[in-house]
Design goal:
Layout (H helix, E strand, L loop, with lengths): L2 E10 L9 E9 L2 E7 L6 H16 L7 H9 L9 H22 L3 H4 L8 E6 L14 H14 L3 E4 L15 H18 L4 E4 L7 H11 L6 E3 L7 H9 L5 E3 L5 H10 L5 E2 L9 H13 L3 E2 L7 H13 L6 E2 L7 H4 L6 E3 L2 E3 L12 H6 L18
Parallel strand pairs: 4-5, 4-11, 5-6, 6-7, 7-8, 8-9, 9-10
Antiparallel strand pairs: 1-2, 2-3, 4-13, 12-13
Helix pairs in contact: 1-3, 2-3, 5-6, 6-7, 7-8, 9-10
């Protein structure tokens, strides 16, 4: 087989745009079989990323065999004498490699998880962020009572875990030292939610590297009594030693990974015991095979996997494939119930039932993009997928 075409769709995510401003989707075609991939959050405007994808495709993908994903990784990873975890290049590689696996599965008429060890579990526990609602009078992240109400709503739907960031906006000046006033508010926020959901629902602290290690330790000590399932990226992801120090000072499990890529970065995190929960994003990590390798390294060290998702449904589908075939899976991130635009842009929505995602038995990724919908919503904005605040906050 030979790849004969690579096409990129930049799809605007309509309001309320849960999952980001847009989705960068890649369609790879080989022998009249097409596969879908997705890139997660390269730090350039998607119009530029589209040109980057085509450049990589023209040099390394067109006329290549889609089955040879290992050599594809080595060629793209080594592009331009790079050979390091560049997140932009790795997101492009991830999207292309993901599409190749979709082709392989369709060619063999098997789900990808059957080609990577086979089904380990038939349903996948999921969690969601606390999202705003049109009926809200206040900001759900500034009103502890409203946040608790939202957590209860999700619990009644079947979720057994909810995530939120109690530390406020992430900024270009992070990490920062939190004020005593802020620490007290964050504790109130968490305690109000815990009192509302009791032991029916896990609490996931979704911080984004906003704190210095000393401030993160201070906050962790205040929040330990509420027994969170994890403390996510308490310090910036490039400072593994600081994250390891936080991990050594708290009983709350540390989770990290959405801003990391390749086995090389994750191996350092695992070796230094900086986190006991790994949250790679399949649209950035370096591909499906690379994610399987990272999961194996983690398994050997007693570390669990909780795939990250704040992008489109193709990454969601790839997350499901990996989660289904690894023994050390913990929980899957979901954008609410995988409904709304997530369902509209797929020919058949991802199956979500009472807090669990049900893996598809269809070949490849198990989902298909509705191209009419994808073309209906071209991204016309100037903002990046995620925006970082320029404000100075305490």
């Amino acid at each position: 087989m030979k790849v004969d075409n690579v096409e990129t769709f930049v799809v605007g995510n309509p309001s309320p745009d849960y999952g980001g401003q847009y989705f960068i989707l890649i369609k790879v075609t080989s022998n009249n079989i097409f596969g879908w991939g997705e890139c997660y959050a390269p730090p350039f405007h998607p119009s530029s990323v589209k040109k980057m994808i085509q450049d990589v495709a023209d040099r390394f993908v067109i006329d290549s065999d889609p089955y040879k994903t290992e050599s594809l990784f080595r060629k793209i990873y080594s592009s331009g004498y790079n050979q390091r975890p560049d997140t932009t290049l790795m997101s492009i590689l991830s999207g292309i490699e993901m599409a190749c696996w979709d082709i392989i599965g369709k060619d063999l008429n098997k789900p990808i998880y059957e080609l990577l060890g086979g089904l380990v579990r038939e349903k996948l526990r999921s969690y969601t962020y606390l999202y705003p609602s049109k009926k809200d009078k206040n900001n759900v992240y500034e009103d502890p009572e409203l946040a608790a109400e939202r957590a209860l709503e999700y619990t009644k739907l079947g979720f057994t875990a909810v995530k939120f960031d109690p530390v406020g906006p992430y900024t270009i000046y992070d990490p920062r030292h939190l004020s005593l006033k802020s620490l007290s508010f964050f504790e109130k926020f968490v305690s109000t939610i815990r009192n509302a959901v009791g032991d029916k629902c896990d609490i996931l602290l979704g911080t984004h590297g906003q704190m210095t290690f000393s401030s993160a330790i201070r906050l962790a000590k205040k929040l330990e009594r509420y027994d969170p399932l994890w403390f996510e990226e308490p310090v910036p992801p490039d400072n593994i030693d600081s994250m390891a120090l936080v991990a050594s000072k708290t009983s709350i499990p540390i989770a990290t990974g959405e801003r990391l890529s390749t086995k090389y970065e994750f191996a350092k995190v695992i070796e230094k015991k900086a986190a006991s929960i790994i949250q790679f994003n399949l649209g950035r990590v370096g591909g499906i095979l690379e994610a399987k390798k990272i999961a194996a390294i983690a398994e050997a060290h007693g570390v669990q996997i909780a795939p990250h998702l704040y992008c489109g449904p193709i990454v969601a589908a790839a997350n499901i494939q990996i989660a289904t075939c690894i023994p050390n899976f913990l929980i899957l991130e979901s954008i609410k119930k995988m409904d709304g635009f997530y369902a509209e842009i797929l020919t058949k929505p991802i199956q979500w039932d009472q807090g669990y995602v049900i893996p598809s038995k269809e070949p490849g990724l198990g989902v298909e993009i509705n191209e009419d919908v994808a073309r209906k919503y071209p991204y016309k904005g100037e903002k990046l997928h995620l925006q970082v605040s320029n404000e100075i906050v305490d």
